[in-house]
Amino acid sequence: MRIDGTGRIITTNRPGTAGKASGEAFRLDGGPAAGRAAQTSAPIAAGGIDALLALQAVDDATTGRRKAVKRANLLLDALEDIRADLLAGQVSEGRLNRAIALLQQAKGQVDPELEAVVADIELRVRVELAKLGRFPPL
Fold first, then answer.
1. Cα(87)–Cα(79) distance, rounded to whole angstroms?
2. CA 110 to CA 62: how far, in whole Å?
3. Do the beta carbons of residue 137 and residue 103 sit within 8 Å?
4. How many alpha carbons lie under 13 Å from residue 55 in its C-beta half-sphere?
5. Is 60 exceeded by the pLDDT of residue 124?
6. Most buried by CB count within 10 Å: which residue of 3, 12, 80, 90?
7. DSSP, res 109
8. C-beta atoms surrounding 115 within 10 Å
9. Can you tell me the distance from the alpha carbon of 51 to that of 63, in angstroms, rounded to the nearest whole number?
């Protein structure tokens, strides 16, 4: 981030100007009873909290798809990192271990087309790992 301008900062609110306006700044209409605190009704029990918490725990229809897409993107990033290391001449063990860890993550049930794409990406990662002498379990 680049910061330009080293000039003086001008403020719009100067101390001492607040409260100099004439008249009341705030007034409640309601006469003499306005000074008394208003009575509130009895507190209502929070009976629906359990239902709300249970509803939050349930995954919606897009959660599995979102997780599969995120996993596929992470696998593609791992492939890109391995490719960059190959071009540099040395592949780090950390990148290989990361790719293996991504392959071993649990797969969610998603639509068949997305599952096929993720399976193709996984196969490509396994091929690249096999070329480098690493054979992750299926």
1. 12
2. 9
3. no
4. 5
5. yes
6. 80
7. P
8. 14
9. 20
